[in-house]
């Protein structure tokens, strides 16, 4: 019984309420927020290490009832890895917002940081919970906080984007709720482990139908073709700090849920019938994402489409439905979280300096800010899959898993889309950094060097991830193994006998 | 030690940058150290490496002498493994040597106002990536350095001119094409490793393992169904890098790059990488008809067309660029032919090309700098104004022509020897003919180059400084290269073409005997007849014939090239009748211009902005994915519904309540005013509360009523700012379509709910809650106890949702942007 | 009863879907409300709608088979409150959007997808 699993929830709740109450004293609030996130970051590192070394899942039941009757928290390598990366990115983005003035004081006064903590809280809850309805509840926490962050600032375009974001995600939530209800009706329990067990004994085509229902619900959340439209419509509207935060967290929580539910509850259905479907959707997502990116002429819209494209890669890892595929997809997810946040952070700096994010109005940044240009180029190389960055290892490991599974078409799509990614990123490189500033555009504001620190850390992390891939892949393989090991999951969750 | 060299060169890039910033005056002395040190180190390794050569094999440089391995990602078979053998030594010496000469040359080439700090950093990174490429023995590590050469070339090509849109797009073109090839190469390598795994070979992806394969394993690789895709993808990779048709067009487009860049790229890095890889992988992938025929065919195309285009060029750099493509084509042919002679010819040819092209580019740089022109029609009379450069240019042209005494001659001889040694007579004649044809034009180019030296003195435009000879630093490079070429050329002839370069021995049989030849039999050129006699007694018949064939070919090409010189104006002004659609350059430009536009149209189609379209697509995907699976998987299991039993327990008033709900919905749909619609929804909500009461959920009913009331109040709040009447905007067709979607979704939900509800119920958890509510939860209202105790975390989350919603709403309603 | 309530759930979803496909903001909001109602009814049906006692225990009577399933009720309660929070936010958003844009026709809100000219 690992009571420490409550720590993240407690700190984040406490932090967000305190930061709200003490909001008037900005420094105090900022301090509380930084403290809460840092505490979580340290905890998640410790937890990840604990699980990696001991190879055991950490488990605690919430409340008086023994499992599976109450809700339980269970952390395996997959959850711990996601938790670690999410807190790491949130920390860096928050520090980034402290260092720049993109988040104005007015925005801060209207509870920006408490909402950030609440998003992290929702994500943490999703990662740690072992109960299906509890998953839905934490997802809603995540969602509603993201609603708030998206519209903070209340610009017209934020409102429009917000409306689209809200509506499509609410449909997704409703579908998820229906799915949870239907599962309960079918097997009479909401504990994920017990559901898995009962599903394994149930031989019904209905399970595949439920699997597709969940597939649609999660596709909406994770922005997969053909339900991804809300993302390009809304991600580019709030301040760039919010976009950076969303890119690293929101859709990735959706992908985590995809991985978790389909490796555990619906695994048999996945392997039997849904593999091809998932792979087709993944390929279409990649293609639509990259075409959308190439079509764009403004910085953040292009980067938003890249998010969709990268999510397609992650989904194909799941679609391969074996341990190698899951591990590869997970590594790729970690890589993409890092690099996309890096690109958005750097893009945010550029945008703040130029005052616009339209590519044709920018230019000549490489000459003015060579350090920023270097970071951008390195991050770009990583996203396009160049060695020795994490992008290369990610591409390598995913292609290897795909080719071993004889999915040659998927591998071809991956390679082609990778070229397209380079092509679209070069466009930004050309327009923003290399070409000279158009004559009638105002000069960009100078950039203070310390604002580059978070970007430097992110790019450096991508390099580290590439060079240290051996350790990370070992962790990912363990995560995949544990995710697929339903027996192990069950034995952790149901150790006591039902009768008490 | 090898790893140290590679690492050191990688660090040389940033280190040199820093050094130049810190000690600008010491630039000239410090920078050459970076390439010089590894170069000398490797020179000392020459004797050791030579011992490992096996000239009888078609892969003479087998295995390697030095090997080091460090782990990186064992799970993928990726590790830092370096090997030094004859082939990699040859390449490494070329890479480092050329870098050294260019480092000496460049500061004088660039005029004073150009900031060259970045240039050396890029140069060293290019050097480092090529060095890593040739020294690596792990397949994936090779690939990594392969990619890095693309990136470093990108910066080199666009150096000094990145403000020009054309330069940017050309550099980008090179990067994109080579990256596309890299992706093909990666797929090929992955498949190759996969096949290897399948054959139960070592898990490491080192080509060492490839080399020591037994015959049967090799055949099984070559018979594998994936062999053809592997080879084709591999070749795409090599051809993009080495600018072979149809991926050749990026190379001439890099003409705007500064001379040092072109010199380095053409002679040592980038384009040579593909040839290196072909030579490296020939034992594994080569020998099959697919390999041979593809390589020979493509190589011939490049050989012939490259030299034709070169002949037509008036720009010196363009001529050299196309000539390089042609030369690379001949290397590709040699790689395809296979066999010991071809392998040796390849190695010597690479060295000869490096020496000649390197020196030529540097000399053209001298010309360009002083005479400010690269136009062959204009330049003449060089010997009068720049005597040293002129002499060197003449020697370089003669080397290109294959004058005996230069390494170029040796290379040409070996080239023909490699061709005639091939067992297939068709290939022999074909390659021989193609090579002969191209050498006519090749010599034509050489003679054109030589012509610059003579002729009338060129007069520069008024106002420009007088033409004078360039400084020593710009001459030392070409001088050394040409001296080496001459030296090796003479040495080769003296030794009767044995051990001419530190890496290659040519003669197949009885090397020891021939070594002791008297010097008199050496000069073939002068006494062909006498040679015949001596040759007959000393060499095999085949060598004799081949030697003659070689001489005939050389003689003819010298003559032919000279004759063509008289037709120079006609040749340069004519254009080959190539239809425009075959020009890949134009094709690329066409694609490049249209892709963004097509992407835009496609994206606008899907992501048009209308929310209801998004919703429609979302719902249709729901229907499209779930309904078919419902039909496929459940329909067999369904039993016919027994309506009577299902409706048996329904009381009459319940019918009444239930029928009101759809009526309420319809009222809301058909409502003309906003108020009516809101009321309709309110009524539906109230009816649902009634339903909750009917089915034993009083708490639920209470909550539903309260929440419904609150929602109504909020709706009315909004209603106060919206227009009271709905406008009927949608067309009839849209309504019908939307209605159909709606009905389908409703049917789906009904079907799902019904199917699940009809299945047996598992009451274990529910019973547990019921039985434990009093003892554990100390409460009689089970639902309450569930919410506040058993599943209190859900309630906590629920409250947090309200909290977060409150924060968001507050921001929405009250946000004030202070001006 | 299961059949009838399943049909009710279907009707609610159908109505909600129809509203979600309309251009008018107000219809959109009503659609979201109906959607949540529909989801709640689906969960209600999961309790199999047996004619049993509501889940109020008295000290003597603890035979679970006499009571209706309490868990769906708890879930629906939770869902109602959560969805209320979400709807409240959506209402505020719609309100603000209308104030800012001056119209409620969703088809005119295209600014987020405008591809500016090259």
Report on the architecture of this protein.
The complex is a heterotrimer of chains A (500), B (819) and C (118). Chain A has a two-stranded antiparallel sheet with strand order 1-2. Chain A has one domain. By secondary structure, chain A is mainly α. Chain A has helices at residues 7-21, 26-54, 77-99, 105-109, 112-128, 132-151, 156-187, 192-201, 206-222, 230-234, 240-264, 267-295, 299-319, 323-354, 365-368, 370-384, 390-404, 408-434, 453-467, 469-484, 486-493; strands at 58-62, 71-75. Chain B is an all-alpha fold. Chain B has a two-stranded antiparallel ribbon with strand order 1-2. Chain B is elongated. The two termini of chain B are 64 Å apart. Chain C has a single domain, classed as Helix Hairpins. Helices cover 60% and strands 0% of the residues of chain C. Chain C contains 3 helices and no strands. Chains in contact: A-B, A-C, B-C. Chains A and B meet through helix 1, helix 5, helix 6, helix 7 and helix 9 of A and strand 1, helix 7, helix 8, helix 26 and helix 27 of B.
Brief overview:
The complex is a heterotrimer of chains A (500), B (819) and C (118). By secondary structure, chain B is mainly α.
């Amino acid at each position: 019984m690992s009571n420490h699993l409550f720590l993240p929830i407690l700190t984040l709740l406490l932090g967000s309420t305190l930061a709200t109450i003490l909001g008037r004293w900005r420094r105090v609030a900022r301090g509380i927020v930084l403290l809460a996130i840092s505490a979580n970051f340290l905890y998640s590192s410790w937890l990840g290490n604990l699980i990696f070394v001991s190879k055991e899942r950490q488990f605690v039941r919430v409340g008086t009832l023994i499992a599976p009757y109450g809700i339980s928290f269970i952390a395996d390598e997959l959850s711990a890895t996601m938790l670690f990366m999410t807190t790491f990115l949130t920390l860096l983005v928050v520090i980034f917002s402290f260092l720049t003035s993109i988040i104005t004081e007015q925005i801060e006064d209207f509870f920006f940081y408490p909402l950030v903590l609440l998003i992290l809280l929702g994500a943490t809850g999703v990662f740690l919970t072992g109960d299906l309805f509890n998953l839905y509840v934490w997802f809603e926490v995540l969602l509603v906080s993201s609603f708030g962050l998206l519209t903070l600032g209340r610009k017209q375009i934020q409102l429009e984007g917000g409306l689209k974001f809200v509506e499509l995600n609410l449909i997704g939530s409703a579908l998820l709720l229906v799915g949870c209800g239907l599962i309960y009706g079918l097997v009479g329990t909401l504990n994920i482990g017990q559901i898995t067990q009962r599903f394994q004994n149930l031989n019904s085509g209905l399970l595949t139908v439920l699997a597709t229902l969940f597939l649609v619900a999660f596709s909406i959340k994770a922005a997969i073709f053909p339900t991804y439209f809300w993302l390009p419509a809304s991600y580019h509207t709030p301040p760039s700090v919010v976009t950076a935060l969303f890119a690293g967290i929101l859709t990735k929580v959706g992908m985590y849920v995809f991985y978790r539910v389909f490796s555990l509850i619906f695994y048999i259905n996945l392997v039997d019938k849904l593999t091809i479907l998932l792979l087709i959707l993944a390929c279409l997502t990649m293609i639509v994402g990259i075409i959308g990116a190439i079509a764009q002429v403004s910085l953040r819209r292009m980067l938003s489409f890249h998010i969709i494209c990268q999510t397609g890669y992650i989904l194909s890892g799941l679609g391969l439905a074996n341990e190698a595929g899951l591990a590869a997809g997970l590594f790729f997810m970690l890589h993409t979280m890092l690099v996309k946040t890096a690109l958005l952070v750097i893009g945010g700096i550029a945008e703040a300096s130029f005052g616009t994010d339209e590519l044709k109005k920018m230019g000549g940044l490489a000459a003015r800010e060579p350090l920023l240009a270097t970071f951008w180029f390195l991050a770009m190389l990583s996203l396009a899959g160049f060695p020795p960055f994490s992008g290369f290892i990610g591409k390598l490991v995913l292609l290897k898993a795909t080719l071993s599974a004889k999915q040659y078409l998927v591998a071809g799509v991956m390679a082609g889309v990778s070229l397209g990614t380079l092509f679209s990123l070069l466009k930004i490189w050309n327009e923003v950094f290399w070409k000279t500033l158009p004559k009638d555009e105002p000069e960009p504001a100078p950039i203070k060097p310390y604002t580059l620190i978070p970007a430097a850390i992110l790019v450096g992390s991508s390099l580290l991830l590439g060079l240290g891939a051996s350790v990370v892949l070992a962790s990912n393989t363990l995560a995949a193994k544990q995710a697929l090991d339903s027996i192990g999951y069950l034995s952790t969750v149901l150790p006591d006998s039902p009768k008490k | 030690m090898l790893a140290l060299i590679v690492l050191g060169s990688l660090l040389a890039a940033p280190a040199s940058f820093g050094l130049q910033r810190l000690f600008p005056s010491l630039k000239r002395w410090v920078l050459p150290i970076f390439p010089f040190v590894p170069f000398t180190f490797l020179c000392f390794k020459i004797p050791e490496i030579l011992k490992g050569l096996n000239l009888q094999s078609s892969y003479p440089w087998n295995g390697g002498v030095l090997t080091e391995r460090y782990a990186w990602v064992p799970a993928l078979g990726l590790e830092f493994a370096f090997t030094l053998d004859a082939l990699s030594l040859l390449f490494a010496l070329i890479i480092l040597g050329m870098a050294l000469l260019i480092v000496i040359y460049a500061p004088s080439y660039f005029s004073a106002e150009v900031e060259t700090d970045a240039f050396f950093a890029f140069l060293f990174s290019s050097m480092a990536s090529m060095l890593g490429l040739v020294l690596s023995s792990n397949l994936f590590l090779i690939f990594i350095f392969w990619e890095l050469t693309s990136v470093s070339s990108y910066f080199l090509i666009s150096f000094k001119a990145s403000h020009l849109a054309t330069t940017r797009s050309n550099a980008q073109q090179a990067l994109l094409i080579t990256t596309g090839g890299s992706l093909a190469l990666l797929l090929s390598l992955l498949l190759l490793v996969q096949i290897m795994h399948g054959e139960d070979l070592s898990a490491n992806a080192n080509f060492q393992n490839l080399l020591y394969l037994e015959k049967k394993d090799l055949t099984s690789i070559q018979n594998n169904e994936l062999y053809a895709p592997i080879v084709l993808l591999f070749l795409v990779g090599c051809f993009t890098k080495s600018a072979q048709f149809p991926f050749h067009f990026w190379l001439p487009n890099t003409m705007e790059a500064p001379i040092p860049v072109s010199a380095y790229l053409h002679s040592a890095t980038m384009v040579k990488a593909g040839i290196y890889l072909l030579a490296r992988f020939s034992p594994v992938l080569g020998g099959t008809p697919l390999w041979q025929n593809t390589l020979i065919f493509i190589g011939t195309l490049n050989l012939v067309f490259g030299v034709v285009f070169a002949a037509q060029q008036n720009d010196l750099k363009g001529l050299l660029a196309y000539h390089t493509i042609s030369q690379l084509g001949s290397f590709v042919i040699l790689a395809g032919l296979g066999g010991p002679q071809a392998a040796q010819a390849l190695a010597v040819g690479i060295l000869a090309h490096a020496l000649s092209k390197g020196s030529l580019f540097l000399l053209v740089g001298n010309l360009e700098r002083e005479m400010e022109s690269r136009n062959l029609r204009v330049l003449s009379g060089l010997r009068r104004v720049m005597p040293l450069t002129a002499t060197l240019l003449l020697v370089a042209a003669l080397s290109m022509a294959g004058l005996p005494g230069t390494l170029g001659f040796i290379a040409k001889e070996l080239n023909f020897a490699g061709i005639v040694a091939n067992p297939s007579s068709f290939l022999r004649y074909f390659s021989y003919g193609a090579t002969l044809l191209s050498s006519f034009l090749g010599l034509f180019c050489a003679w054109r180059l030589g012509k610059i030296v003579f002729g009338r003195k060129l007069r520069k435009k008024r106002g420009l400084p007088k033409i004078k000879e360039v400084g020593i630093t710009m001459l030392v490079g070409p001088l050394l290269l040409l001296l080496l070429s001459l030296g090796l050329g003479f040495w080769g002839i003296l030794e009767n073409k044995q051990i001419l370069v530190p890496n290659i021995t040519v003669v197949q049989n009885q090397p020891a005997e021939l070594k002791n030849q008297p010097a008199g039999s050496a000069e073939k050129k002068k006494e062909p007849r006498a040679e015949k006699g001596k040759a007959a007694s000393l060499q095999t018949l085949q060598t004799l014939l081949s030697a003659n064939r070689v001489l005939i070919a050389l003689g003819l090409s010298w003559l032919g090239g000279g004759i063509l010189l008289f037709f120079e104006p006609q040749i340069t002004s004519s254009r080959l009748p190539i239809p425009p659609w075959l020009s890949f350059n134009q094709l690329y430009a066409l694609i490049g211009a249209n892709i963004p536009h097509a992407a835009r149209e496609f994206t606008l189609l899907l992501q048009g902005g209308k929310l209801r379209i998004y919703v429609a697509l979302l719902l249709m995907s729901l229907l499209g994915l779930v309904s078919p699976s419902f039909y496929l998987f459940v329909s067999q299991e369904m039993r016919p519904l027994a309506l009577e039993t299902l409706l048996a327990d329904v009381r009459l008033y319940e019918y009444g309540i239930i029928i009101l709900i759809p009526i309420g919905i319809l009222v809301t749909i058909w409502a003309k005013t906003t108020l009516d619609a809101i009321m309709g929804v309110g009524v539906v909500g109230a009816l649902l509360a009634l339903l909750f009461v009917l089915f034993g959920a009083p708490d639920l009913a209470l909550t539903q009523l309260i929440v419904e009331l609150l929602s109504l109040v909020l709706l009315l709040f909004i209603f106060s700012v919206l227009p009271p009447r709905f406008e009927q905007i949608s067309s009839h067709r849209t309504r019908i379509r939307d209605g159909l979607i709606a009905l389908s979704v409703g049917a789906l939900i009904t079907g799902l709910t019904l199917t699940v509800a009809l299945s047996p119920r598992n009451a274990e958890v529910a019973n547990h809650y019921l039985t434990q509510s009093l003892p554990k939860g100390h409460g009689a209202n089970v639902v309450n106890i569930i919410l506040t105790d058993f599943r209190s975390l859900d309630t906590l989350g629920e409250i947090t949702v309200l909290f977060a919603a409150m924060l968001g709403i507050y921001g929405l309603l009250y946000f004030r942007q202070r001006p | 009863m299961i059949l009838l309530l399943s049909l009710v759930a279907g009707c609610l979803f159908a109505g909600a879907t129809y509203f979600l496909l309309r251009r008018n903001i107000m219809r959109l909001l009503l659609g979201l409300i109906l959607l949540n109602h529909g989801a709640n009814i689906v969960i209600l049906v999961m309790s199999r709608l047996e004619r049993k006692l509501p889940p109020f225990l008295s000290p003597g009577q603890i035979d679970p088979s006499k009571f209706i399933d309490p868990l769906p009720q708890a879930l629906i309660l939770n869902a109602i409150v959560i969805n209320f929070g979400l709807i409240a936010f959506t209402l505020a958003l719609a309100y603000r959007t209308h104030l800012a844009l001056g119209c409620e026709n969703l088809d005119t809100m295209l600014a987020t997808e405008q591809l500016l000219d090259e």
